[in-house]
């Protein structure tokens, strides 16, 4: 197992740092560029959802991202926030037929990751994502 963890403020510009860490972490795992990009994009969407929907764009809240690599080919992502509890039944992708900006984050996350689930924590939310790659 290999892992890395990053704690950062809920500023949109910090998503770029998180993506850079994901890219560097996964590039050491012999994944192809498309898999790395797709993973970055999906986690980008998850962090953006925390910033927008949980923290209402407040820039001084805490987000913790942990990446765990489990040999031979599985990535686990843990995204922790300390905002109001999210009702998982309300977290759904919008219909693709609806042509409008936004609202595709959950669709992208579910398309990229094999598992997307909210884990119970005392304070805030913990989003667990897992993906098995074909290597």
Automatic annotation (TrEMBL):
Gene3D superfamilies: Histidine kinase-like ATPase, C-terminal domain
InterPro entries cross-referenced by the UniProt entry: Anti-sigma-factor_SerPK, HATPase_C_sf, HATPase_dom
Domain of life of the organism encoding this protein: Bacteria
Pfam families for the chain: HATPase_c_2 (PF13581)
Residue ranges annotated for the Histidine kinase/HSP90-like ATPase domain, each copy included: 10-131
Alphabetized UniProt keyword annotations: Kinase, Serine/threonine-protein kinase, Transferase
Molecular function terms from GO: protein serine/threonine kinase activity
PANTHER family xref list: ANTI-SIGMA-F FACTOR RSBW (PTHR35526:SF3), ANTI-SIGMA-F FACTOR RSBW-RELATED (PTHR35526)
Protein name, UniProt field: Putative anti-sigma regulatory factor, serine/threonine protein kinase
């Amino acid at each position: 197992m290999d892992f890395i963890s990053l704690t950062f403020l809920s500023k949109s510009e910090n998503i770029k740092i998180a993506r850079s860490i994901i890219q560097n972490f996964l590039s050491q795992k012999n994944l192809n560029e498309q898999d790395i990009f797709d993973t970055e994009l999906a986690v980008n969407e998850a962090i953006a959802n925390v910033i927008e929907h949980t923290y209402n764009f407040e820039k001084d809240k805490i987000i913790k991202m942990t990446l765990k690599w489990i040999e031979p080919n599985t990535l686990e992502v843990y995204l922790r926030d300390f905002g109001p509890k999210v009702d998982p039944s309300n977290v759904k992708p919008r219909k693709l037929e609806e042509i409008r900006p936004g609202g595709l984050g959950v669709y992208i996350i579910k398309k990229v990751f094999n598992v997307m689930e909210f884990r119970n924590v005392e304070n805030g939310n913990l989003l667990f994502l897992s993906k098995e790659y074909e290597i």
